[in-house]
């Protein structure tokens, strides 16, 4: 099965943003002569005006069965979806990306799981190289290395902030008041994997290193919820799990096909405990090459967010690399501890897999594989993907140990696993707002 892209974007010669080149902070300052670079740094952002989307901050609102049933019902929830798509296409027409992702071939690999392969031959050469150690999940932010304060404001689509009155608002131009709270922004990923590929950068001026905290993760969950489109997924890579920039950020993009991980069977593993039952449920992935946990439910959005954040904080503090996928408009969250980079460093990964140069981060683990060579793309098979992702996964014994400690850290009770009670999850239920011509299956 093949997928053909039919975007309405007018192709123009690609130009590089003034702030995408590799350069030290001293080089940039000397070229700018002060704060005239129109960047996201403290020299320019506090005196700038940017569009702002202020979302309803309903983190404590009770939701039926732990789900926001307004997902996909249209305005005002779909306004953010349309805003993001329109602004992303406008940046595409201005040539602000390193390459034209709409020319990349994509296909569904034949087999039971429907893994998705994309051929992107130049991305690994044009993408920024990793600048830090891969054996430490927590590392100090280093202003001398590339970070998002050094990109130009032309790459920003809008600010993404909670509103003050629990109503949704959008302002085309709003002054940045960095004196009170550092702004959170949604910006293009200049090395995109898919249509609408963006970055969510929480409180950009605070220069957090790449680590999950409760408020930033809640912000990412709000983005998935507000966009209200199941084709839009939000992902996170920790250091050691193929994050390439040590500045806190989440990634997100649109894909109209269900990801293989979303279709995997699960069985109930943990439930919340204590005098205040939050209603969050945790399941284990079954019959999938990577061991992982699936969080869903919760009486409130904050309940679900805190359960995942507590688990991520435990992994970070214990130097266990991991990836996170927020799917189904924020209803389901996949937490995937991994060990591929460690195996790679120890020489435990086969040369055949290393030769493909695939770094299995959140999208690859979810079943969307970006391949760098025509040969690998043409010969891609379900067997190859299974072998690759199996190398990512913790051993069953190690996964059980990590799960036990996560249960303690996040306040869960483990339940007896009944493999016969597993269930198959279907395709996300919300209606996609993605343009029908964006991704077609033949």
Automatic annotation (TrEMBL):
Domain GDPGP1-like N-terminal: 80-253
Protein location: Cytoplasm
TM stretches of this protein: none
One Pfam family per UniProt: GDPGP1_N
Catalytic activity entry: GDP-alpha-D-glucose + phosphate = alpha-D-glucose 1-phosphate + GDP + H(+)
Domain of life per record: Eukaryota
Record keywords, A-Z: Cytoplasm, Guanine-nucleotide releasing factor, Hydrolase, Nucleotide-binding, Nucleotidyltransferase, Transferase
GO cellular component: cytoplasm
GO annotation, biological process: glucose metabolic process
Gene Ontology MF annotations: GDP-D-glucose phosphorylase activity; guanyl-nucleotide exchange factor activity; hydrolase activity; nucleotide binding
E.C. code: 2.7.7.78
Domain GDPGP1-like C-terminal: 260-411
Coiled coil feature spans: none
Role summary: Specific and highly efficient GDP-D-glucose phosphorylase regulating the levels of GDP-D-glucose in cells.
Family (UniProt): Belongs to the GDPGP1 family.
Name under which the protein is recorded: GDP-D-glucose phosphorylase 1
Organism: Fraxinus pennsylvanica
